[in-house]
Amino acid sequence: MKNVKLISIFVMLNIIVYAQTEIYGLVNTGNKCEPLANCNILLKDTEIGTVTDDDGYFSLLTVFEGEHILQVSHIGYNIAERAINIRKGKNIYLKIKMQSAILDGDLVSVTATKTARRLYEIPGRLEVITNKYLTKLPSQKLDDILQYVSGLNVHRTSGIFEIRPVVSLRGVSGDEAGRTLILVDGVPINKSDTGVANWNRIDVNNIDRVEIFKGAGSSLYGNNAMGGTINIITKRPTQNFTGNLNLSRGTYNTNSMNVSASSYIFDKISLNLAGFYRNSDGYFDLPDSLQDEYSVPLFLDEKGISANMGYSFDENTVLDIKYDYYDDKRGEGVKINQSDGKHRQFDTNFIQATFSKKHNVSKYEINGYLQKENYLRVDEGFKKGVYNHFDVSSERIDKGLLFNYSLDLTNSNSLTFGAEIKSGSVNGGDYYTTAPDTIINKGMLRNFASYLQYEFGLMNDQLKIISSVRLDDVKFHDGFFGANVENNPFYNYNGDIAENNWKSLSPRIALRYYLENNISLYSSFSRGFRAATLDDLCRTGWMRLGPKLANPELGPETIDSYEIGLDYSPHHLLRISPTIYYSKGKDFLYYVDTGELLWGRRPIYTRENITEVEIKGAECDVVFKPNNVFSILCNYTYNNSVITSFTENPELEGKYLVFSPEHQFKSVLQFTSDLFSVNFGALYKDKQFTNDNNSERIDGYITYNCQLSKELFNSFKISVEMQNITDERITEHPERLSPGRMTNVNLSYKW
């Protein structure tokens, strides 16, 4: 009897197994065909379901026969349904592509969390500009393209001839470039001496994508990330040998050339080489009424090379070594005795080494970098009829070692922590030839930091939460000022400069909640800071306002930022993304009168942490892509940046920050067909105040830019681009005019 029961059970199990049908398959993203984990798989009208694994695979068994609907869902993607006919014993294989419910939602970013995350997962406002988009817009510099991003303001009066362009986010910077952090492949290029990142040395043709994270980002990145973080990610070699040559001719006898080539060697070694050159006769940036016999056109002569070599020990272990060199000379519109007149030169060497190692659920990365800039300013002019000539020469060095480790605890939870040591130094001087004076200034800034970030999901990942905190320990040391001539007005300030040490704690908490697959809300609080520059800490000398004293006791500027945002796709062709933000800045740096007089009549100034600032703003982005031929991108930004407290100068309370327009509107229309492509951009910028008391301003303006391009024989491309079509001689600097309309004809060949 016992054997009969066992046989019966065995027969019944075989009948059940035979009656079952296996439905299995793969789910991936529609654009890049990447596996999509944690998708919910459901056989509708039943309770049979499963989820996809880390590789996007799924499998479920059913005994139901007949016509059924298999439903696949994932937050951030449109629900996919497949009609299937289930027959007993006949297995079914499906390959399902999921389309993002929010346009570009499956783009991957590494900037916002220091881990690879799709855009729809990030609780914050992040923009990713891909190489495909970069090549479609009329541009000669990267910030020509970035200016179309909502909340971003570009201050580049002289176009390609500008010496110090300023790129700022959400009204924080004003004319202070150091309040926005600029990264190249994850390492900072802001100089400790000035806080400025040299945008001119960035080669647009060597960029894979640009990631722009808005809002204070100091909880991960520390110094300079007050208004936001811009990460420029360069191209990586492809398996096949590829290359590109681009030649350009334009207005003011502007000539440029870009060339690049990349390939893999012996399967393990990758190599990418790129270089560019541009020169131009330039233009007169002064109105005719202000020119004299010594006025000459601005000019530029720049060149750069880049080499990137990677070695793959195995598929999970990679070492990358990168070297950049940039040499730049820019005229300032005055020529008296010097061969190139009044001009500046930037000679920059940049080295970066990155070692990364992946495991099943973890990854760590070590970054080391060195940036050395030799800066030269040749200045000549007449003062009270007497000719003066001096050179400013500075060696600026920034270096660091960065460590980042991330661990996936579960499918929804991950932990990231890291440590950094960075230092910056300046060794500079003013060297006169028409006087015996030599003035020396030196100083160093050291920064130790550590950070921790925890990401987790709740309610089946319907709610995503990120919390992070970073501690920075900053020290100014080895400061020195020296004037060699006893009758020099600053001789009494000679000697070593006092050290200073301070700490900054930068927290962030952010969450994103998905109401539906195509609707999500996010909210965040974050704190950012900016350390004082070495120029303020150790340089005594002359500035625009007059004589200035170094102040080694300066502490950091800080800002607390709050924001809420919405992403809504009423249709998979349309995305609407409004954002509201509020920021409170404390200890902002401003020049104040020390009460001392130079020569008994000239007020002497110094920098102090004395100002509070309030920033209120809103952004709204709309993207409409009805097909692969036509697309419209437009956005509006409202920004109100006001000084709320200035104890040393109360009459400035209630005044707007300089170069912070209240309203901006931007739009891009793109048409792409087999015959040709047309891209048209329009930018409106509201009035901007150019001085602290708001007594001087530049009026609002609108510019139009266009590019017409056509591909020939699959390898050649010819394009004509025009910036500032209406030839408006805009000014974003008192008494300085923009170059007006700039037209370029480009011919490129790729292989």
Write the layout of secondary structure elements.
Elements: H1 2-19, E1 21-29, E2 40-43, E3 49-51, E4 57-62, E5 66-73, E6 80-86, E7 92-98, E8 108-109, E9 117-118, E10 126-130, H2 131-134, H3 142-146, E11 152-155, E12 166-169, E13 181-184, E14 187-188, E15 207-214, H4 218-221, E16 228-234, E17 242-250, E18 254-265, E19 269-280, E20 300-314, E21 317-331, E22 343-358, E23 362-383, E24 386-408, E25 414-432, E26 438-458, E27 463-483, E28 495-497, E29 500-516, E30 519-530, H5 534-538, E31 541-542, E32 547-549, E33 557-571, E34 574-598, E35 602-624, E36 630-646, E37 663-672, E38 677-685, E39 688-689, E40 697-698, E41 701-712, E42 716-723, E43 742-750
Parallel strand pairs: 1-7, 13-16, 32-35
Antiparallel strand pairs: 1-4, 2-3, 2-5, 5-6, 8-9, 10-15, 11-12, 13-14, 15-16, 17-18, 17-43, 18-19, 19-20, 20-21, 21-22, 22-23, 23-24, 24-25, 25-26, 26-27, 27-28, 27-29, 29-30, 30-33, 31-32, 33-34, 34-35, 35-36, 36-37, 37-38, 38-41, 39-40, 41-42, 42-43
Characterize the structure shown.
- It is a single chain.
- With 751 residues, the chain is mainly beta.
- The chain folds into 3 domains: 2-98, Immunoglobulin-like (Sandwich); 108-231, TonB-dependent receptor, plug domain (Ferric Hydroxamate Uptake Protein, Chain A, domain 1, Beta Complex); 232-750, Maltoporin, Chain A.
- Helix content is 5%, strand content 58%.
- The strands form 7 sheets. It has a 22-stranded antiparallel β-barrel. It has a 5-stranded mixed sheet with strand order 10-15-16-13-14.
- A hairpin with a 3-residue loop joins strand 41 (701-712) and strand 42 (716-723).
- The model is unreliable at 6-18 (pLDDT under 50).
